[in-house]
Amino acid sequence: MTKAAEQMKGRAGRLARLMPSGPSTAARTPFVLLVVLLLTGGLISLLLLNSALNEGSFRLSKLKRETTDLTDEQQALQRDVDSYSEPDALERRARELGMVPGGSPAFLNPDGTIRGVPERVTAEPSPAAAPKPDASTPGNAGAPPAAASPSGSVPPSPSGSAATPAPSATSTTLPPTSSGR
Residue 77: in which H helix or E strand, if any? Predict the structure, then answer.
C-alpha cells in the first residue's frame, strides 16, 4: 500500500472511532420527533393565522356594508331636511300655522326715536298657492282669512282673543332708558 492509502486508512480509522459502528436508530428518534413536532406546530399556527385573517376579512366586509347602509340613510335624511328647508316648503308650513309675511319694519333708535313706519300685516293668500282650509278648526272651515277692516277695528284671532292694534304711523319719542351696563 502506498503512503496515501495508509493516510486514508489512518483518517478513516480515526473517523471510524468517532462514529459508532452499526446502525443506531436510538439517536435518530428524538431528532425525527423534533422535526415532526416543529412541522406540525408550524402548520397549526399557519391554520390559526389564516382563520383569524379570514374572520377579520368577514368582519371588515360586514362593517363596510353597515357603513354603506348608514351613509345611504344619512343621505336620505339630509335630502328630507333639505326638502323641508326649501323656501316654498317653509312658506307653506308657516301659512298652515297661520303666519303671514312681515311688512316693513320700524326701528327704535338709541335715543328713543322710532325710524320707519310700522304697518299692520294682513293675512292675504299667497299668489303661489292659496292655503288649504284647516279641518281641525270647525268654525273656520272654508272661511277666507281675516283682514283688517278700514275702520281700524281689530278682527279676532283664530284663538278667539283680540289682537293688539298696530302702533300709529306717527313718530314717537320715548324717554331714554339705561341699558344696565
Answer: helix 28-85
Claim: this prediction has a pTM higher than 0.70: no
Nearest-angstrom CA–CA distance, 2 and 70: 92
Given a contact cutoff of 8 angstroms between Cβ atoms, the answer to whether 133 and 152 are in contact is no
Crossing angle (nearest 10°) for helices 87-96 and 28-85: 60
Q: Please classify residue 154 by burial: count the beta carbons closer than 10 Å to its beta carbon, then call 0-12 exposed, 13-18 middle and 19+ buried.
A: middle
145 is written with which cell numbers? 282669512
Q: Residue 111 contacts by C-beta under 8 Å, 6 or more apart in sequence?
A: 173, 176
Q: Cβ distance 95 to 126 under 8 Å?
A: yes
Helix, strand, coil share of the chain (percent; to 5) = 45, 5, 50
Report, in angstroms and rounded to the nearest whole number, the Rg of the chain calculated over CA atoms. 49
Task: List, run by run, the mean pLDDT of 10-residue segments along the chain (181 residues).
Answer: 66 70 70 95 97 95 97 96 91 89 86 87 60 48 44 44 45 50 41
